[in-house]
Design brief:
It is elongated, with a radius of gyration of 25 Å. The relative contact order is 0.11. The chain is built from 9 helices and 10 strands. The model has no long low-confidence stretch (mean pLDDT 78). It folds into 2 domains: 54 residues; 185 residues, Rossmann fold (3-Layer(aba) Sandwich), CATH 3.40.50. Helix 6 crosses helix 7. The longest helix has 28 residues. The strands form 2 sheets. Strands 2-3-10-9-8-5-6-7 form an 8-stranded mixed β-sheet, sandwiched between helices. It has a two-stranded antiparallel ribbon with strand order 1-4.
């Protein structure tokens, strides 16, 4: 009896290839329908992203995103479109909504130092409509998801800012909301200046928790900075702030950065002057 080792080896190789292809197909299907464990889905998304970025670079496309930064599966295509210079759909939608809610009139904004602008974007008024508030919150949530900035324990919003936006964002993120309330009548120091108090659930402790600041915009950055300082005084960590738009001209970004807070704005706002 003779054994054809060449034929046997060929059969084994063919079987191994078939098993590998079947396994790969199964993994692809599970990933496509969202049945893979989060760690596995993230690992496959990372590998696809690395391969795509290498292909883009070989074609001469300038890629500014750091491939070593991990990406969630939901943020994968948004980062690819960004590398190609394409504007994300959520950003285009935000611009459309802001135009709808813009009052074209000269107006002074700001609390301590006024900021003259040619237009006023009334997100605060428009978010009294719950559906509009939810739309803005979804856009902001999508942006932060793409930027990998959803690792926080609570959401904080100035009550004098856009609290309805902050509330809807907290609902989406499934995190508690902390309101920064400007108390103008009961300053414990005896001064006439107002001070900030925090409203949040009685059973909740802010110590050793991480928060994110949410508002429609920030003109000079003072409200967000005071809110961050009040939260830090309670033992919380606050290093990120997110807004729909950033008015240009008053230096909010620089003020926040000087206090270890990174401002994340989806689009620029109206250009103004002091």
């Amino acid at each position: 009896m003779t054994i054809d080792f060449n034929n046997m080896f060929g059969v084994l190789i063919s079987g191994a290839i078939l098993c590998l292809l079947s396994f790969s197909s199964l993994i692809f299907i599970l990933d496509a329908v969202g049945l893979l464990p989060p760690w596995a889905a993230k690992w496959f998304a990372r590998n696809r992203l690395d391969a795509t970025l290498r292909a883009l670079k070989s074609l001469g496309v300038k890629v500014t995103w750091d491939a070593d930064k991990p990406s969630t599966p939901n943020g994968f295509m948004r980062r690819i479109r960004s590398a190609l210079g394409e504007e994300p759909e959520y950003k285009s939608r935000l611009k459309e909504m802001l135009i709808q809610h813009t009052l074209n009139a000269k107006i002074d904004v700001g609390q301590r130092r006024t900021f003259a602008a040619e237009a006023f974007i009334d997100v605060i008024g428009s978010t009294t409509d719950p559906e509009v508030a939810r739309q803005y919150a979804r856009i902001l949530f999508t942006h932060l998801e793409a930027e990998e900035l959803l690792a926080f324990d609570f959401v904080a919003t100035p009550k004098e800012g856009a609290p309805l936006l902050g509330y809807e964002f907290a609902v989406l993120a499934r995190k508690p909301l902390v309101l920064g309330v400007c108390d103008k009548g009961n300053d414990p120091t005896g001064n006439n200046r107002s001070h900030l108090i925090l409203d949040y659930p009685l059973h909740m402790s802010l110590k050793n928790r991480t928060g994110i600041l949410i508002d429609d915009s920030t003109t000079g950055g003072r409200k967000m900075l005071e809110l961050a300082q009040a939260l830090r005084a309670e033992g919380a960590t606050v290093n990120n702030a997110a807004v729909l738009f950033e008015p240009i001209g008053k230096g909010a970004r620089q003020l926040l950065q000087a206090n270890q807070i990174e401002l994340n704005a989806i689009v620029p706002g109206p250009q103004g002057r002091m």
